[in-house]
């Protein structure tokens, strides 16, 4: 298999490199946020990456891209490749922090500018529908008036985008396709000049060795974190299933029903209840029990 031509824009290093250019960033924001007419961004300035005071153990205290448009509205853009439990809380914190931080710079309350947080995620956040781009803002429950409109959020869930490159008809769709699939393309699939430039930026052989090594280091680190999270999730799931099986056995529920509901094996469940309840003092090690759950 030949080496891929384009690097993955979901990688933090590639994502930042892609949107370090004003023209590309304005095209992306205007299209996916549906900014038109007097709200359309015609110029922007990049803002310093201020570290928010997050708790130890969180990812990092800054967004991937932070800028403001000609009217002073702030846009915070984040690429999140792997699942994070507290991600929704984190992006709300970013939005609130960016808004209130204007006060520290001497801006009166009446002159505080709007903040928009745009999160691109490589997993599904909202499970109850298949809408790819979701917008959130504060509205009155009864009238749906949007008077408290200073902070708003947009989420692009890449797994929900199912269109092929041939089916993409708008610049918005072409940008989302690019973020999801660019690394799989052999030639630029779109004719838009800004998108052509984006593919040129992502082309592997346009990166110097230092930048490419940084890209690879980020990829390795992200892959290792994802593997660790997957292992923790699987271990927690299996522990939970064992506890559930124990409770059902104690209630007298048949083994066949428990197998159907938990997916655990009969080989495990047919052993004495004590072995299931007290693994540490039973006949199985933890690793052996985990193996049994999969047989």
How do the helices and strands line up, and which of them pair or pack?
Elements: H1 12-18, H2 22-32, E1 44-46, E2 65-69, E3 74-80, H3 87-104, E4 115-121, E5 133-136, E6 151-157, H4 171-181, H5 193-202, H6 209-250, H7 255-262, H8 266-269, H9 273-277, H10 286-294
Parallel strand pairs: 3-4, 4-6
Antiparallel strand pairs: 1-2, 2-3, 5-6
Described by strand count, sense and barrel closure, the largest sheet is:
6 strands, mixed
Helix amount: 40-55%
Count of β-strands:
6
Instruction: Enumerate the strands of the largest sheet in spatial order, edge to edge or round the barrel.
Output: 1-2-3-4-6-5
How many H/I helices? 10
Structural Rg = 24 Å
Summed over residues and divided by their number, the pLDDT gives a mean of 83
Strand content: 5-15%
Shape: globular
Helix and strand content put the structural class at alpha/beta
SSE string, helices as H and strands as E: HHEEEHEEEHHHHHHH
- Straight-line distance between termini: 35 Å
The quaternary state of the protein chains shown equals single chain
* Low-confidence region ranges: 277-284
Describe the fold and architecture.
- The chain is an alpha/beta fold.
- It is built from ten helices and six strands.
- A six-stranded mixed beta sheet has the order 1-2-3-4-6-5, with helices on both faces.
- β2 and β3 form a beta hairpin.
- The longest helix has 42 residues, at 209-250.
- The two termini are 35 Å apart.
